[in-house]
Write a structure and sequence with these properties.
Distance between the termini of chain B: 31 Å
Largest interface: A-B, 12 and 20 residues
Protein name (chain B): Iron uptake system component EfeO
Strand order of the largest sheet of chain B: 1-8-5-2-3
Distance between the termini of chain A: 24 Å
Largest sheet of chain A: 6 strands, antiparallel
Number of strands of chain A: 10
Structural class of chain B: alpha+beta
Helix content of chain B: 40-55%
Number of strands of chain B: 10
Strand content of chain A: 15-25%
Main location (chain B): periplasm
CATH architecture of the largest domain in chain B: Up-down Bundle
Radius of gyration of chain A: 21 Å
InterPro entries (chain B): EfeM/EfeO_iron_uptake, EfeO_Cupredoxin, Imelysin-like, Imelysin-like_EfeO/Algp7, Imelysin_sf, Iron_uptake_EfeM/EfeO
Structural class of chain A: alpha+beta
CATH topology of the largest domain in chain B: A middle domain of Talin 1
GO cellular component, one term (chain B): periplasmic space
Family (chain B): Belongs to the EfeM/EfeO family.
Oligomer: heterodimer
Shape of chain B: globular
Helix content of chain A: 10-25%
């Protein structure tokens, strides 16, 4: 934990975007210590926390990458990259440069020599739009896609068994231009401009080595990893994933999210302390949903709309009685009890990318979920849902990707993917 | 073509005019004062009364004793113009004044107003020195100036092939000559744009017209003819007039382009601007929306950028060898990628951009980003 403390102190000494870290920084560092790398923001729940309280810095260094068990921030910018260089050393060099830039940005500092004051003839290192903004609990989380292990970089025998090619699920209508990718970076922050600034600057540092394949903005978190917090609503107006794994639930994290023990042997040894990330762009036909009677909406989810309580229960966190729900209801099908205990940590965001040209919103859920193994996590659950979920009438999966998320960066000499390239 | 004409070259020229040297030229019949330097211009000589003089406000009393109209230039060692006086007729006199900072200059007489002129090296001494210049940079700028002029000189005949075909009403021949007539222009576009007035006449697109401009009357140049040939598929009297006008406007470019304000920084930034042009106009297919010859412009832009880079390399590789190596690599990669779209590497016949699919356009765009990002650091590598 000493590394984390160091980073927070550095953030306080950083030249910009630092004024507000005092409270948040200290609080977060304590939270991180308590939660073993995960960050608990506040006992009151992130839903009601005043904006000023959410401006601090989340420690970048740790046993696990931040941005997984971290209390879910309000905004997302997610980017998937194709690696363009074929030179392994050049890729390693980029990952090192990215790590240093990520350390700075998550601490609220500018990248490189900053956004102003340099040579007038040269473009500044930092693009500048985050100047004066708080660190905003920015987290940057990297992942490696199956295609990175295709032999270009000598990583063939390091592809973990869990990094499978996801099967095609019934109803999938995947756009290759919104799917896959060699490397992903998830940027989450309470200020959208801080998240966008981070992705933009990483993309800029990467030109010539990597190219953005696709990217996704998310504006409203649909999950919470904070205990006792109200579960945020998705664009259908419902709370979903009320039994999500909280950042403080060390045991459930160890059991369902962090790779360790026999899952981190052989080809997967470099994944010790890591996790697997599934990203799905799920288009939601909000217009047709909005024409659906309330009772049908509630039946489809298996919850009431106001409180989010499971059928027949009073409170959203009450344990659901699955048999009281319709067989094709979303909660019943997705529940661990219907999937041999499969549990995943959800971290998705709503999106609205303008319109679809047919007078409807191009809206939906950018589903993000972390787990120890997709073969016992996402795949069985999604197989069920794709076949039977009543929600399918209103949704379509249009983008998909799977990434191996390496363990955290331990200190100033460590870098994203070091164990993989060792 | 650029929508906003605020180029670094222009800015540099303005700054130079304001701060470095103030030159003005005036015709005068009065006898030159005693402290003036006399310049006697003949058809085969250019005699200067003093080769070394104190820095400051200096008056040149010019007399044309030759048989041809002449012009006299005061030049920096890299051929940038301090001041000039054109149209000095045989037997007439003119006075030129200029503020000389201490340093080396050339005084050049150009009998017949052609060529590099007959030059005399002179030196202004004492006083405040002008910004220190390196011979390497001066050589780079002088070589680039020659390149720009050579491009213009080679372009005009190619334009004539195109405009002749238009005047002859031969649509097919005009289409064939169109793209090639633009190569020299596209290679050196940032320099031409520094004049401000030529680019809007010859290279504007319909959407680039300003408020209140009428496309029927005010839209001139290559792209107007491109639309006539590919979209309207007809050549009328108006098109023939426009062909004449294009010849005339480009002749003006040819005459002026060699005198543009060029500095090592403007060369480096010009190279970056050429890649900007590719990124915003060519990769998107907007520049040549009727003819779809975008890849020809693309290639020409890259060639022009590469020329600047090659000339600046001796300086840049001392300051930032890593950057130079990266630029070498990325220029080569982009050129290799472009070669996939032509069968003959000696020709400028490229695949119609209409037939270049989305994934291929993305690949080209990635290549442009890969080159443009390090290229944006060239100016700093040249000056630091």
């Amino acid at each position: 934990m000493t590394d984390e403390t160091t980073t927070t102190e550095q953030a306080a000494a950083a030249p910009s975007r630092r004024k507000v870290i005092g409270w948040g920084g200290a609080g977060l560092a304590l939270g991180a210590a308590a939660a073993g790398g995960a960050v608990a923001l506040t006992r009151d729940g992130d839903h009601t926390a005043p904006v000023a309280d959410t401006g601090g810095a989340v420690p970048f260094h740790g046993a696990h990458q931040a941005g997984i068990a971290t209390a879910v921030q309000d905004r997302l910018h997610f980017a998937s990259f194709d690696v363009k260089t074929t030179d392994r050393d050049e890729l390693i060099q980029l990952l090192k440069e990215w790590t240093r830039a990520a350390e700075r940005m998550t601490a609220g500092a500018e990248v490189g020599d900053g956004a102003y004051g340099g040579l007038p003839e040269a473009p500044p290192d930092d693009t500048g739009e985050a100047l004066g903004l708080k660190p905003s609990r920015l987290t940057l989380t990297i992942g490696f896609g199956p295609s990175l292990f295709d032999g270009r970089f000598g990583l063939k025998d390091k592809r973990p068994g869990a990094l499978v090619d996801l099967p095609k699920f019934p109803g999938d209508n995947l756009d290759p231009a919104r799917s896959g990718g060699d490397i992903c970076v998830q940027a989450c922050a309470d200020d959208p401009q801080v998240a966008v600034h981070a992705i933009r600057n990483l993309a800029r540092i990467g030109f010539g080595k990597v190219a953005v394949r696709w990217s996704q903005l998310g504006f409203g978190k649909t999950s919470s990893t904070t205990p006792d917090a109200q579960t945020p609503r998705n664009l259908f107006g419902f709370k979903d994933g009320t039994r999500n794994i909280a950042g403080t639930e060390t045991e459930r994290l160890a059991k369902h999210v962090w790779v360790s023990g026999k899952d981190a042997e052989g080809a997967s040894a470099w994944m010790d302390g890591g996790s697997y990330l599934v990203a799905r762009r799920i288009r939601m036909n909000v217009e047709t949903w909005d024409r659906t009677p309330l009772s049908e909406q509630e039946d489809i989810f298996g919850r009431d709309k106001k409180e989010g309580a499971p059928v027949g229960k009073a409170k959203e966190h009450d344990e659901p009685f699955l048999k009281a729900m319709k067989p094709d209801s979303h909660v019943r099908l997705a529940h661990p009890d219907s999937n041999n205990g499969a549990t995943i940590l959800r971290r998705g965001y709503s999106f609205t990318d303008g319109t679809d040209g047919l007078g409807r919103l191009d809206a939906g859920l950018f589903f993000l979920a972390y787990m120890k193994d997709v073969r016992t996590g996402f795949i069985p659950v999604q197989t069920q849902l794709a076949k039977h979920d009543a929600l399918n009438e209103y949704t379509q999966h249009v983008g998909s990707a799977l990434f191996a998320v390496p363990p955290g960066v331990r200190g100033k000499d460590d870098w994203w993917g070091r164990a993989l390239f060792a | 073509m650029r929508a906003v004409r605020l180029s670094v070259v222009t800015a540099a020229a303005t700054a130079a005019a304001l701060t470095a040297v103030t030159g003005c030229a005036e015709k005068s019949d009065s006898k030159a004062s005693d402290d003036a330097i006399t310049v006697v211009a003949k058809d085969d000589s250019c005699e200067v009364s003093k080769k070394e003089f104190p820095a400051g406000h200096v008056k040149l009393a010019v007399e044309n004793r030759g048989s041809k109209i002449t012009e006299v230039y005061v030049l920096f060692p890299d051929d940038r113009i301090v001041t000039e006086r054109e149209n000095i007729g045989p037997g007439t006199k003119a006075t030129i004044t200029a503020e000389f900072k201490s340093g080396d200059y050339f005084i050049a007489c150009k009998p017949g107003m052609k060529g590099d002129g007959i030059r005399q090296a002179v030196k202004a001494t004492g006083g405040k020195a002008a910004a220190k210049r390196s011979p390497e940079m001066d050589a780079a700028v002088a070589a680039y100036r020659q390149y720009v002029q050579a491009q213009a000189d080679a372009t005009l005949p190619k334009v004539k092939v195109f405009t002749d075909a238009v005047r002859a009403g031969n649509i097919e021949a005009a289409k064939k000559a169109y793209a090639e007539s633009r190569i020299g222009w596209e290679r050196t576009e940032p320099v031409a744009e520094s004049f401000g007035d030529i680019d809007p006449k010859v290279d504007v697109r319909e959407d680039g017209l300003e408020d209140g401009q009428d496309p029927a009357k005010d839209w001139t140049g290559w792209h107007r003819l491109e639309k006539a040939l590919w979209q309207d598929k007809k050549i009328g009297d108006r098109e023939k007039q426009l062909a004449d006008l294009l010849d005339k406007d480009l002749a003006d470019w040819q005459k002026r382009v060699g005198k543009a304000e060029i500095t090592p920084t403007s060369m480096a930034n010009g190279a970056k601007e050429l890649l900007d042009e590719v990124a915003t106009g060519k990769v998107t297919g907007e520049e040549e929306r009727y003819s779809h010859t975008d890849l020809v412009d693309f290639k020409a832009n890259v060639e022009g950028a590469q020329k600047s880079f090659e000339l600046l390399k001796p300086v840049a590789s001392k300051n930032d060898p890593k950057l130079v190596a990266e630029l070498d690599k990325q220029f080569a990669a982009l050129n290799t990628l472009l070669d996939k779209y032509r069968t003959d590497k000696a020709s400028y016949v490229f695949t119609s951009y209409e037939k270049v699919g989305k994934p291929e356009r993305k690949e080209l765009s990635d290549g442009v980003n890969a080159l443009a990002e390090p290229l944006s650091k060239l100016a700093a590598a040249v000056v630091k």
